[in-house]
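Form 12-C: Joint structure prediction
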Amino acid sequence: MYLFKKVEDLQAYLSRHQEGSILSVGYVPTMGALHQGHLELIRRSKETCTITVCSIFVNPTQFGDASDLDNYPRPIETDIEQLEAAGCDVLFLPSAAEVYPKDMAAFRLDLQGLDQTMEGASRPGHFDGVVQVVHRLLDIVQPSHLFMGQKDYQQFAVIKYMLQQIKSSVQLVRVPIVREEDGLAMSSRNVRLSEIGRKQATYISKALRQAKKDVAEYTLEETKARAVAFLVANGMDIDYFEIVDGDTLQSVSNWDDAPVITACTVVRVDGVRLLDNNVLKELEVG
Ligand code: AMP
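Section 2 - Result
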């Protein structure tokens, strides 16, 4: 695996490989502390594209709180080992100065409320930071395909919207959530759970699986109420449980109101915010 810290070195490598041949470049942006969820994105990219580029960059502009940014785990040695073992072709490991040169204006986009609900409600400016960094990284890497996890559903929807707005030709691939055997969505935060908390956390995916069954029998409002009641009955501390239009992220109450309907939740266990979601409805387009 090649490791580049400088934009110009990465771009020189990519253009050398593109000379004379038609290449697809798959790109997987991450903030490191990699686990099987991230590696699944690498696997999908390798399956689809000729070259796979992963970046590890803990983006300061998406953290509201400086101590969160400082405390973000950075196990770079094990990350590199995992990427090597997964067969990733290139790791891009830039500094903040490389991603945000002094003379470069920040990319901004009106997110039409996508950034106001759910995660956005408690993290003002977070999605502006996400849009800014992904836009800049895409400009650097110039991939044909961008692989992002369904785990961060709202982030995926925001980036999908951004790509539409800038009329990008990049193909965005949504990779399903990779879960532990008992259903808990993989996350670097899971190691912060106590033994009891780790067991309790399985109620989150159970509630979401049940919601997917319930929509066959109940209205969306009833489905939501049943999921919330199940979580509360099992002692869960719910930040939010929303059933939303999968594109606009606005709440929906009727099944026919949107082509994609997704249940998104955040539950706190041992003080750790655990995100999860389940697509309840998705009409095939095409
Ligand atoms: P992060 O390093 O947290 O910014 O995540 C990088 C990418 O990995 C994002 O596109 C996430 O949605 C994705 N990801 C994180 N956890 C999972 C998971 N359990 N399953 C699938 N994708 C994931």
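Section 3 - Comments
Strands lie at 2-4, 25-30, 51-56, 90-92, 145-149, 171-175, 237-245, 260-269, 272-282. The radius of gyration is 19 Å.
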